[in-house]
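Please supply some protein, with fold tokens.
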Amino acid sequence: MKKLKIQVEGNYLIMQDLPHNCIFNKVVTGCGGTTIALTNTENYIIAVPTTELIENKCHPPKDKNGNNTVWEISMKKAGLSPIRNLFGLYGRFTPLLKKELEDYLSRDGVKKIMCTYDKIPALIPLITPTEYRLLVDEYHSLIKIYSYRKDAVDGVLDNFNKFKSFCFMSATPIDAAFKPNVLQDVEEYVADWEKTEPLMIVPYKTNKPYMLAANIIATYQRQGYIEKGTFKSYEAYFFINSVKEIKKILMQTNLTNEDCRIICADEYKNRKTLGKFKISTSTDTPKKFNFITSKSFEGVDFYSETGICYVISNVYNKHTLLSIDMDIPQIAGRIRNIDNPFRNLVVHIFNTRPTDLFGSYEDVKAETEKDFEYAKERAALFNQLSKGAKQQQIQELSKLSYLKYNEDKEEFAINDMAIKIELFNYKLMNYIYNSQKSLVNEYEKAGMQHSKVEWIETDNFIKKAVTKPTFLEVFNEYVSMQYSFDFEARQAIEQEYPFIRDALARLGIEQVKKLRSKKKVIETLNMLKETDRNIDMSILQQLKSLFKIGDFVPAKDLRSIAKQFGLKKATDLSKWLDLREDTKRIEGKVTKGYWISAFSDI
């Protein structure tokens, strides 16, 4: 690995071009590496793992002056960006999209095409690859997505050598143990930063990760923010790669579409799971609570002056287990605001599984490599068979994940990615998350590989934030809000304590403080309500002795009776009497008054 001298302005790389024919570890997320390929004078194909990344670049949430930009849904589609020289290629490669691309390619000037990994094979016949440089952005995703997007990854690895040059770029490169064989001999460069900001980690182990996330939300709702030292966070970004678990949190916390933004794949399965909740994108308006799946773990820009990143991992849902050397540093770099005091902070909430249920990683690695050697032996034997014998064997050998068949050469080759992804997933599920110590060790290892990791274990503000306050503490906070405009926080308290408004109005501040507990306040209010009910019944009985249904009572007389009960106006008796205002001639004079239509049911 070679150090690459770089020029930097602020936290951004200043380069004419990215290094060629190499793996480039840029070390720092959000440092403008992709922007170099997007804006220089070279023709570039920029391959990325998700459509969200392309939409984020073609339709950025901020304009060149840093102002928020709101895009209509109809504008956010594949094709030429409305604001920059960039063609976004993703989704279905329809005849219309192909025609738009051909029109773009026929124009004069530099060409910039940003596509998902799977579009590389389809794109090659439409261009002259030797006229384009290839940037495989967020290339660490190749190992992460291989198990469910094998063809997309193979399309990149089979074709990257056809371009004028290639650069596999990431701030969190693939560990040498899991690097694809085809990249083993590729030169590696690492950006030589004089100074990098530390990644601050708050590891928080709990038996119920999603319940803890709900408690964090409850704290934001109740007091409007979460406090760390002298800084306050008013927004939360939850990175959780499971739409089902997001829905559980939403239902637990009674959030609405006004409160939250959910960034996930816009597909039928997710829409059905979320029900009334709307699916958003990274370019939509931020909310107080933002839920983000792996669709936006890498390369997507978020803007928040006070947002904190929370990672939720559950060992019993493998989709939520994130790699410490790749996923976590990527997530830490998603919020772009330099002035956000929590910009490099990650709160990792997780649980662990029993350690005695699984073999050690080294034992499993040895066993897997033994099976891999057997597969290599079978492939070698197959390739020596006659054509007829090969036809008989193809179907059987194709079932082996460690082998892949090359139809052009009519032979089997070793699929090294299969064994690497198997070991990668095993290590993640059954080793890293089997104890807090293992997780911490993995963070320390990642810190040595990429940038400094700083542990926050003493001033654990999350523990303080999720510790449920006493009723009296909540009441004092509620009293202090009476003349503020933080309606959301007041409503959250009233929702959790429906009686608190009555407590303030009927008992007063000093009386509630003397009672102190929720139980005693409720008991006192109930006693008052029982007393009120007895008084109401007494007043009703007295009124029944004075009037009967169908009586007309002059307003003056009714007002006098109301005052006897401590009321100001005749209409205050409406609690006990159904009154209809009218006039009637009494002794030749028109008199204002009320007909008694019924007695109220107290």
User: Anything to note?
Assistant: The chain has 20 helices and 26 strands.
